[in-house]
Amino acid sequence: MWDYSEKVLELFYNPINQGTIDDPAEPDVAVVFGEVGSIACGDALRLHLKIQPSTDSILDARFQTFGCTSAIASSSALTEIIKGRTLDEALHITNQDIADFLGGLPEAKMHCSVMGQEALEAAIYKYRGIEVEHHDDDEGTLVCACYGITEKKIRRAIAENDLTTVEQVTNYVKAGGGCGSCLANIEDLIVDAQESAETVRAAAELAVAREQRSQEAAAPTPLTNLQKITLIQQVIDKEVRPILIADGGDVSLHDVEGDRVLVKLQGACGSCASSTETLKYAIEAKLKDLVLPSLVVEAI
Ligand code: FES
């Protein structure tokens, strides 16, 4: 006896959205179906969609299935998940989303969720005028002749579900579940996928390390207190004082306390009504720009 979740049993005993959709021949409504599997293989699913072309969204979804408990529950789950979605959103739904909706599926029954995902893609491709046999998954080298499963389909199942064993591949797409002559080839595809994933992971880690190194190299080294004071003095002497002196004023650096720069305004500046502007714009702005943005200038 399979260990089914309560949701799977609920949707098996009381399936929802079972049946077909008649074409109402109304404006802005299209009806299409997609199907996968075959009765000879023990599982078949036909998914019917009612689509609103103006919004590219799914108004209704129904299913007909020939299969086990989890096939019926997965089909009900799929139809509930996709109602109201746009077609592009629906194409992003994975078999894992279907399994999650059901509170999980026994691994040996995961192919039912994969079948739902495939029927959905078949229906949408058909509506969009893309021949299903021209879809990527259906092209490529045939690996499992018993179930007609291609290399691309196996690679996709491995990648999307992190499969690591041949038994898992059989559970997800049925490949290898017949005569067994393709098992070694499936094993090779798993090893190849793991090596590719490792290469991608290593490349990503290298890129992150490089980025961190370049950011560290680009980041300015914090000034020591002595460097900060020396720099402030230089800016005041070379960039500020000549301007103030030309106007009959002057300034001297009194002290630096953290980010507070204490200065003494002299000459015309000391008695000038615009001394606040002098501090802010002539001195503080220069120091913020040339030394540290956090500096604040105060007169004593
Ligand atoms: S060829 Fe794959 S099980 Fe027979």
What does this 3D model show about the protein?
The protein has a three-stranded antiparallel sheet. It starts with 5 loop residues before the first helix and ends with a strand. α1 (6-13) crosses α2, α2 crosses α5 (110-127) and α5 packs across α7 (166-173). With 300 residues, the protein is an alpha+beta fold. The chain has helices at 6-13, 69-82, 87-91, 95-101, 110-127, 151-161, 166-173, 183-218, 225-246, 268-271, 275-290; strands at 30-38, 43-52, 57-66, 142-144, 149-150, 249-257, 260-267, 296-299. The chain is elongated, with a radius of gyration of 35 Å. 32% of the residues are buried. It contains eleven helices and eight strands. The structure holds FE2/S2 (inorganic) cluster. The site of FE2/S2 (inorganic) cluster has 11 residues, from loops. Residues 144-146, 175-182 line the site of FE2/S2 (inorganic) cluster (FES).
User: What global shape is seen?
Assistant: elongated
- For the terminal residues, how far apart are their CA atoms? 87 Å
Low-confidence stretches: none
- Sheet with the most strands, sense and barrel status: 3 strands, antiparallel
Helicity, in percent? 40-55%
Which strand-content bin applies to the residues?
Answer: 15-25%
Say how many strands there are: 8
Quick check: average pLDDT? Answer: 88
The quaternary state of the protein chains shown equals: single chain
The ordered H/E elements are HEEEHHHHEEHHHHEEHHE
Radius of gyration: 35 Å
